[in-house]
Every structure is written in structure tokens, then in C-alpha cells.
């Protein structure tokens, strides 16, 4: 729903605590930056540095969402997306996918039950060589309205000042929606039961040149089964990974790719603001996950799910985050290359 006309409610200390914990364990889903052309204010290096946990980064690993597992599958397009975009990936057919399930945290040893944010990255490949990469999370909105605000939030979360988050929230009441979600949303028993959302907006360009601003979601075809909080705490530290291995061994796991088209006045540059629920939504195909492989030597390990890697027919919008994320992802990837000797490969000849 559109929150633009709603009066903000006071943020409770409990909710602030949830946010503080979220930031503290670096469990936010995306890396964002702002004012990209004003390096004195912000750089991708500053964002990546701000994601660093108190004990330092896990060398050789992604700087956020460090724990994950690879999958292979297909995206079966039904042709409906061709009305919105001229991308060949929306033409009826089956296209190979490499992806990664993950949890939002900078520590690759984080127990799965502690994850407040879950994520999914995909790389869909067309026969033409074009690719569509996307990194999504299960939150319905993001925690910060601008990349600059996100950096300020990260700094507040790392600050020794006990009032830092409270002071941030007073200037950014829009964080309440994310805070409420992080505090109370139901945790499912499996990635296969989670919905993953792009949050950022993009532009689809049709063959006729018509431009539509959109967001997309992967909607699970498995029924959600939630885990009570007390039971979640007892689950195995790797229960999500163990679950996805077992399920995919049994049969492919599926999500519908749903594309939502913005209205004329919907906010397209602010991922803290959801669009009204009555916006047109198009079912453009199904993601099938057919195979799981550990990340250590899996096909997703060296993939950066850069959201600006887009096929013809999909473009970035006025949302500043994809470009910012791209730059920060590049910094993170370069650090992984530099630290390749620190990564726990299972095959010595594996590339970084």
C-alpha cells in the first residue's frame, strides 16, 4: 500500500532494538550508496566499510549476505512479459538460471534462525548472451529512503552512542514500516515458502517504445508454514540449507515471477514506500530450482548479482539505488578477489 499519505506513528523502543540488532549483525539485504558523484560525501568504499561487523570482515566472503548456497534452474517465460518489455527473456521459452539463496548477515557462520532478512539472487541468461541479474529480499519495503540515509543508519547502528538509532529514527520516521516488519513478521520453515521482492524500481521498454516503471517479486508456489519463535530458536544453525537440499532432491521448487506496474504518481525512487495493492500485476513466468550445490565451489560463488546487469528492454529508473548497489558490489567483489586465499575452497584449483 502507499504510505505517503499516512501519519507516522512513534517508533517504540522495542522496534528500535530490533533495528539496532538488524544493523548490528549487518543483516540488511542490500548495499546502497548515495550522491554517487559527490565523493566527499559518499563512496562505495564507505558503504562497504560501514557494513563491516565489529570483529572485522570475513575475508574472502561477500561483505553482506555472506552465508548462502547455490542453485541452478530455469526461468520458463510464458510470453506475457513481452507486452511490457522487448527483452527476449520474456518470449515464451526456457532460459538457464544460476542463483543463490542467502541470509542477510556479514558473518558466513551466522545461524539460520538468527536471520532477520532472507535473500535470493538470480542470473537469467538469454541465448543472445544478454543477462538479467537481480538480488531480492523477503522484506516488503527497505529500511532507508535514500542511499545517503542508509549509510547514516549503518553508522548509527555501529555507534557506541545508545541514542544513535533513536536520533536517526527521529529524522527518518519512514523506517517504522521496516521496523514493524522486522519485529513481527512470520518466519517460514523454508526459503521455498518465502516471497522475494526487488524493492527497487526499473523501467520496462516495449517493442513500441512504451515505458513502464515496474517492480517485481518471486512468489512461492509452496504453501507457507510459519515457525513459532520458541521453536525457531531450537532449529539447526543450517536448517535453511538442509531444507532446500532435501526439497530440491525430492522435486523442483517453483516461484512465479510477478511484475507490478506503477501508477502515474507512485513513488519510484524510494524503496521504503510500497505501491497501492491495486496496481496491475502481470505473471510473466516461473522460476524452477532444479539443483542445489554448496557455494564453496558452486556456480554462484563468483557471481555478483549486480542489479544494473540488465537485458535490452529493461533499464534502471530514477531510483538511485541500483547504480549505488552496483558500485558497492564491485568494491565487495574486488576485495573477495584480493582475499581469495582466505576463502575456504574445497577444490584447490577453484577460481576466487
What fraction, in percent, of the residue positions are helical? Answer: 10-25%
Average of per-residue pLDDT values: 89
* Topology, number of strands: 10
Class from secondary-structure proportions:
alpha+beta
Transmembrane segments: 12-37
GO molecular function: catalase activity; heme binding; metal ion binding
InterPro entries: Catalase (IPR018028), Catalase_core (IPR011614), Catalase_sf (IPR020835), Catalase_SrpA-type_pred (IPR024168)
Cofactor: heme
Short structural summary:
The chain has 352 residues and is α+β, with helices and mostly antiparallel strands.
Structure commentary:
With 352 residues, the protein is α+β, with helices and mostly antiparallel strands. The protein has a domain at 64-138 and 185-339: Catalase HpII,  Chain A, domain 1 (Beta Barrel). Helices cover 24% and strands 22% of the residues. The protein contains 8 helices and 10 strands. Strands 1, 2, 3, 4, 5, 6, 7, 8, 9 and 10 form a 10-stranded antiparallel β-sheet that branches. Strand 3 and strand 4 form a beta hairpin. Helix 1 (13-24) crosses helix 3 (147-158), helix 1 (13-24) crosses helix 5 and helix 3 (147-158) packs antiparallel against helix 4. The N and C termini lie far apart (42 Å). The model is unreliable at 1-11 and 18-37 (pLDDT under 50).
Amino acid at each position: 500500500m502507499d504510505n505517503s499519505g499516512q501519519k507516522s506513528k512513534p517508533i517504540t523502543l522495542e522496534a528500535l532494538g530490533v533495528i539496532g540488532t538488524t544493523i548490528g549483525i549487518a543483516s540488511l539485504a542490500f548495499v546502497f550508496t548515495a550522491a554517487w558523484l559527490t565523493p566527499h560525501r559518499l563512496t562505495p568504499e564507505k558503504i562497504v566499510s560501514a557494513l563491516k561487523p565489529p570483529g572485522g570482515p570475513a575475508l574472502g566472503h561477500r561483505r553482506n549476505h555472506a552465508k548462502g548456497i547455490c542453485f541452478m534452474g530455469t526461468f520458463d517465460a510464458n510470453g506475457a512479459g513481452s507486452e511490457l518489455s522487448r527483452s527476449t527473456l520474456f518470449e515464451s521459452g526456457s532460459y538457464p538460471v544460476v542463483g543463490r539463496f542467502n541470509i542477510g548477515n556479514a558473518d558466513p557462520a551466522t545461524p539460520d534462525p538468527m536471520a532477520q532478512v532472507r535473500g535470493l539472487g538470480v542470473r537469467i541468461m538469454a541465448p543472445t548472451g544478454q543477462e538479467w541479474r537481480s538480488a531480492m529480499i523477503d522484506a516488503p519495503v527497505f529500511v532507508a529512503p535514500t542511499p545517503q540515509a542508509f549509510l547514516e543508519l549503518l553508522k548509527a547502528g555501529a555507534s557506541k552512542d545508545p541514542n544513535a538509532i533513536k536520533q536517526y529514527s527521529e529524522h527518518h520516521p519512514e523506517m517504522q514500516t521496516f521496523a514493524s516488519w522486522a519485529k513481527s513478521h512470520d518466519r517460514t520453515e523454508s526459503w521455498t515458502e518465502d516471497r522475494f521482492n526487488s524493492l527497487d524500481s526499473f523501467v520496462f521498454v516495449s517493442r513500441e517504445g512504451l515505458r513502464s516503471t515496474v517492480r517485481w517479486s518471486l512468489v512461492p508456489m509452496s504453501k507457507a508454514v510459519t515457525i513459532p519463535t520458541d521453536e525457531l530458536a531450537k532449529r539447526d544453525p543450517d536448517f535453511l540449507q538442509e531444507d532446500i537440499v532435501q526439497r530440491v532432491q525430492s522435486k523442483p521448487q517453483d516461484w512465479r515471477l510477478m511484475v507490478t506496474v506503477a501508477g502515474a504518481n507512485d513513488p519510484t525512487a524510494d524503496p521504503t514506500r510500497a505501491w497501492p495493492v491495486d496496481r496491475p500485476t502481470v505473471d510473466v513466468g516461473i522460476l524452477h530450482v532444479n539443483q542445489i550445490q554448496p557455494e564453496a565451489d558452486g556456480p554462484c560463488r563468483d557471481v555478483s548479482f549486480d542489479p544494473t546487469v540488465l537485458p535490452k528492454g529493461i533499464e534502471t529508473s530514477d531510483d538511485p539505488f541500483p547504480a549505488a548497489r552496483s558500485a558497492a558490489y564491485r568494491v565487495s567483489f574486488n576485495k573477495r578477489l584480493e582475499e581469495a586465499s582466505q576463502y575456504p575452497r574445497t577444490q584447490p584449483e577453484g577460481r576466487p
